[in-house]
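Good morning C.,

I know you're traveling, so I'll keep this short. The sequence:
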Amino acid sequence: MLLCSITTMIKVHTTLLKNLKSIRRFGILASYSRQKRRATWFHNASQNAWGENHVTMNHDAAGLAMVHIYCEIPKSKLRQHGKGLFYVMGDVPASAIRRVTLVTRVEQELPV
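The C-alpha cells, ready to paste straight into the viewer:
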C-alpha cells in the first residue's frame, strides 16, 4: 500500500516500457507531450485499464510492453481534467516516482 502525506497524492502515469530507463534518470518530461498543452498526464490507480487502452490506441503501442509509474505529486500542482484524469504543467522529477509495475496481459485460450 502506498502512503502519502495530506499535501500530496499518488497518481499513475502509463507509458511504454522502452521509456522507463530515461524516465528513471530524468523524470517524466512534459517536452515529450504530443499535445498543444505541454503537460504530464496522470490517472487514478482505479483507471489503469483506461491508461493502458489510451497508450495502445493513441501512441501506436499495440503489442508493446507498458508500465504504470506511480508518482507522489503535490496537490497544488495537479489539475483535474475530467473524472479521474489529471495533468501537471511541466516536468515531474524522477524523485517523485514511488513504484513501477509492469503491465501484464493474460492471454486466454478460446474454445474450439
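Safe travels,
E.
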